[in-house]
Amino acid sequence: MVAFDGLPPLRQVLEAHGLDPRRALGQNFLLDLNLTGRIARQALPLEGQTVIEVGPGPGGLTRALLAHGAARVVAIEKDARCLPALAEIAKHYPGRLQVIEGDALRIDPSSLCDGPFKIVANLPYNVGTQLLLNWITVPEWPPRWTDLTLMFQKEVAERIVAGADDDHYGRLGVLCGWRTEAEILFDVSREAFTPPPKVTSAIVQLRPREDPLPVDLAKLEAVTAAAFGQRRKMLRQSLKPLGGEALLERVGIDARRRAETLDVAEFVALANALA
Ligand code: SAM
Known about the structure:
Elements: H1 10-16, E1 29-30, H2 33-42, E2 50-54, H3 60-67, E3 72-77, H4 83-92, E4 97-101, E5 117-122, H5 128-136, E6 145-153, H6 154-161, H7 171-179, E7 180-188, E8 193-194, E9 201-208, H8 217-229, H9 235-238, H10 244-250, H11 264-273
Parallel strand pairs: 2-3, 2-5, 3-4, 5-6
Antiparallel strand pairs: 1-8, 6-9, 7-9
Helix pairs in contact: 2-3, 7-11, 8-11
Bound molecules: S-adenosylmethionine (SAM).
S-adenosylmethionine binds next to strand 1, helix 3 and strand 3.
């Protein structure tokens, strides 16, 4: 039996290459090519585009990206056991798939290609947030990536898109809101994965803001870390180590407010007022 792209079904690929999923590598595979196709379509247009994929595994999403016209996919995979399966895909799409064996946490995606690129990935849940932070805190802005289409645990997805007064709002929401426009596109149920993870997942898409408010990233991180480190406390208490009431007064923010009520612009104002 073959799939729509003439390659074997993914369950057969797992068996043929002995790819029993490993929890330590966050391996929850998507074996339904209809679903990987739906994810790939969120990143359209793909024609003529370079896509960086993190964690291709047996290649379900990789195949969908190539079938939907990506000119070039550069896939970073930590698990060497996946390489033979990925080599079969590369052979099927000559010159369009490059697989790099390595740890995506240590690789700057912009070093892998010239020009603009997209990142599309079903991220390993244990390093997903750190990878996103790496990509949205690059010094060069706007970044070379044009959009990120990423699978996260739903709870993380909600933190990424959260704004002020939202229960999920925190440091991640401030950083993502500062530099990007982020939205949850759809949920993906546990049963869609092999093996099923403990919780529901969601696809998030982020696009860079052209003109994020100017601020020193280290200062923005210092303010959000202090404020959300004690999120139930009033800001005059949580921001005490950074100047407390005097700092808040300088930017005209009521010292009795709590971190979760401040929008991104207010966090930026506080960061810019830091000594
Ligand atoms: N894309 C495949 C799919 O959708 O079925 C696999 C997704 S699975 C959630 C995550 C993949 O990331 C696994 O193949 C795993 O080996 C790989 N991985 C885990 N940590 C990684 C890292 N630090 N760098 C690159 N790949 C990693």
